[in-house]
Amino acid sequence: MKKIYIDDLISCTFLSFTIIIVILNVGMRYFFNSPIKSAEEIATICFIWAVFVGGASCYRKKMHMGIDILTQSLPEKFKIYVELLINIIVMLMNGTFFCLSLKFTIISRVKPTAVLGISSMYVNSSLIIGFGLIFVYSILEIFKNIKTILGKKGDENV
């Protein structure tokens, strides 16, 4: 049975809502000359959630963009060390972004959105989820890298 990850479910749901709302709003504007007033803001909020949580999903699946010119030119035994270094940098950066997004979201709780008037905290909490998930996924990747390095060193001694 295929695993269903919550980040995939959240990002796909919000992306689907974005598409549905935009199509519905275009139809209302075209056929009835009466667009849905809050459609743009709802679509934007859904898109923000799809992007940040979807980014975490892409990182987990190793679907993120990368420039591998450096790693391709290295000998095979050094590639795992470069991958470990990259994962440590990603962990540190996303840990920092996670902390900053917590502060930003707390500050934004009193600011309402332009049309719906809901707290911006609900929009900005997608930052916390996205950066937090990438932080956790990078820690898991670091453990995998260390396990691989220790496994390779153990194999060399045999």
Automatic annotation (TrEMBL):
Domain of life: Bacteria
GO cellular component term, pick one: plasma membrane
Domain Tripartite ATP-independent periplasmic transporters DctQ component: 19-147
UniProt keyword annotation of Metal-binding present: no
Alphabetical keyword list: Cell inner membrane, Cell membrane, Membrane, Transmembrane, Transmembrane helix, Transport
Transmembrane segment boundaries: 12-30, 42-59, 80-106, 126-143
Membrane topology: Multi-pass membrane protein
One Pfam family of this chain: DctQ
Subcellular location(s) per record: Cell inner membrane
InterPro entries, per the entry: DctQ, TRAP_DctQ
Main location: membrane
Family in the record: Belongs to the TRAP transporter small permease family.
PANTHER family hit by this protein: 2,3-DIKETO-L-GULONATE TRAP TRANSPORTER SMALL PERMEASE PROTEIN YIAM, SLL1102 PROTEIN
Protein name (Swiss-Prot/TrEMBL): Tripartite ATP-independent periplasmic transporters DctQ component domain-containing protein
Organism: Fusobacterium ulcerans 12-1B
